[in-house]
Write a sequence for this structure.
């Protein structure tokens, strides 16, 4: 077959393809129209659509919840009113006739429930994680209804499905985990039957519920995870993550204008990148895809013809460094126990962090001391009090974890020394505790994160070097080094 006759890289008859559109990819009427075009162009596959809340809505809902719990109900209701008006205006511009009437009714009904929740929060003066999950879930509920009706208006047979009736999780509010068997079964039943009827299931990402029907969320940025949960349950041919950049890049393009797209990377590398702060993918996203060996494509909804990044089980190993990441808002915790560290103390420490839902990122232990990194410090005074009899807990806020990622780089002394030499004068602390060979990390003051990323990027991805098509972005360094 000649080049010209070749089908598009995305044409596979009848296969299920899960397409996830992030907040900026549904943010306004132009974005939703682009989404409709992209979905409409997938002629020979069975799309399953997963959408985030409209850009900024989740933050606004959180702000409204905090305001209500602080007794500022008026300001909370005003924020929600803005969100309502934004959705209504979009509904008005994208949907007509009886479909508009139905969408309008369901949006009004949801907004009334949201207002009632804010009133409840203002009365109880408390926003616990359970109420917060209920609150934040409204964003995806609104957006998925809006997008579903907009697709219908454009002649695509979309059906709105409430993701909370499909993804069943534990009750770890704020960052719930799926109960896989029941989740897979529900998805196959509910989403599967919509697909069998030849329709396009349209669901909100991020949202789920416990087996008792209490709303939960999968953690901030969790719509990517939802997409891969649906894909794994449905045996999808691929996952498409539609976002606002051209793919996974050598670093966050907001930090470094020279960032380049990585055409192809392995699940392991991408998971490492996501774990160490590359916001483009939620850290849990890849696990279900890896389990079912489903390729993940990261694509730009503003540039749908771009190649994007494909993440697969194996990608070429010819390169060394593949990306630089930075994770902000890190707190470094030191736990000293003069009488030494033993398994009882370790389990007490983990139990304490677990009790306060404070996930631990990186850990190292030396004689009489444990070093941890955590993402949030609010619970640390309570954790320190709980461990007071066994150990002293101290911490430093406003740290960032800067990370060089690449296959086997930890074993490469030259990469490590070059990376260290590049940032040594910025008062970094080298961390070698991670279990993986794919990362070299530095702990640094948050104010210096941007500069260290830029310096490392300049060293490992020199500007003059051409980008290799196979994704060997860092071959430049292999040659230079
Ligand atoms: P969405 O709303 O589509 O889920 P996100 O804001 O969650 O989008 O993720 C996309 C953003 O991730 C980009 O705008 C970019 O600033 C950021 N980002 C951080 N690291 C990277 C990276 N290595 N490659 C690409 N984007 C990155
Ligand atoms: N809307 C949620 C958030 O902002 C989930 C997501 O966008 O993936 O965190
Ligand atoms: Mg995201």
């Amino acid at each position: 077959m000649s080049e010209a006759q070749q089908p598009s890289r995305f044409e596979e008859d009848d296969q299920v393809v899960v397409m996830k559109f992030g907040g900026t990819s549904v943010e306004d009427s132009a974005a939703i129209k682009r989404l409709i075009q992209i979905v409409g162009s997938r002629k020979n596959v069975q799309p399953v659509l997963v959408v985030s809340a409209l850009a900024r809505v989740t933050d606004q809902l959180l702000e409204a919840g905090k305001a209500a719990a602080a007794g500022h109900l008026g300001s909370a209701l005003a924020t929600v009113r803005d969100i309502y008006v934004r959705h209504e205006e979009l509904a008005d511009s994208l949907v007509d006739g009886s479909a508009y009437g139905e969408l309008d009714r369901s949006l009004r009904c949801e907004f009334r429930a949201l207002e009632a929740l804010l009133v409840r929060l203002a009365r109880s003066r408390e926003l616990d994680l359970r109420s917060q999950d209920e609150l934040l879930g409204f964003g995806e509920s609104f957006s998925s209804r809006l997008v579903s009706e907009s697709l219908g208006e454009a002649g695509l047979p979309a059906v709105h499905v409430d993701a909370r009736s499909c993804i069943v999780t534990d009750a770890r509010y704020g960052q719930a985990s799926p109960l896989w068997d029941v989740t897979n079964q529900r998805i196959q039943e509910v989403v599967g039957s919509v697909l069998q009827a030849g329709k396009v299931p349209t669901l909100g990402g991020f949202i789920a519920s416990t087996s008792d029907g209490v709303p939960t969320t999968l953690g901030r940025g969790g719509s990517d995870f939802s997409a891969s949960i649906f894909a794994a349950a449905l045996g999808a041919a691929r996952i498409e993550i539609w976002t606002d950049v051209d793919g996974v890049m050598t670093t966050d393009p907001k930090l470094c204008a020279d960032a380049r797209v990585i055409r192809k990377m392995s699940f392991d590398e991408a998971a490492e990148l996501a774990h160490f702060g590359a916001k483009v993918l939620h850290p849990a996203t890849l696990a279900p895809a890896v389990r079912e060996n489903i390729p993940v494509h990261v694509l730009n909804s503003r540039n749908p013809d771009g190649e994007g990044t494909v993440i697969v089980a194996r990608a070429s190993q010819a390169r060394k460094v593949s990306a630089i990441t930075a994770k902000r808002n890190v707190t470094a915790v030191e736990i000293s126990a003069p009488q030494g560290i033993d398994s009882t103390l370790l389990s007490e420490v983990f139990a304490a962090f677990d009790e306060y839902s404070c996930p631990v990122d990186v850990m190292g232990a030396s004689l009489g001391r444990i070093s941890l990194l955590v993402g949030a410090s609010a619970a640390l005074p309570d954790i320190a009090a709980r461990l007071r009899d066994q150990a002293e807990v101290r911490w430093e806020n406003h740290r960032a974890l800067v990370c060089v990622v690449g296959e086997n780089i930890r074993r490469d002394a030259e990469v490590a020394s070059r990376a260290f030499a590049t940032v040594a004068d910025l008062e970094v602390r080298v961390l070698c505790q991670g279990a993986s060979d794919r990362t070299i990390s530095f702990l640094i003051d948050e104010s210096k994160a941007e500069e260290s990323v830029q310096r490392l990027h300049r060293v490992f991805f020199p500007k003059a070097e051409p980008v290799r098509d196979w994704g060997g972005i860092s071959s430049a360094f292999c040659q230079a080094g």
Confidence is low (pLDDT under 50) at residues 1-7, 466-481.
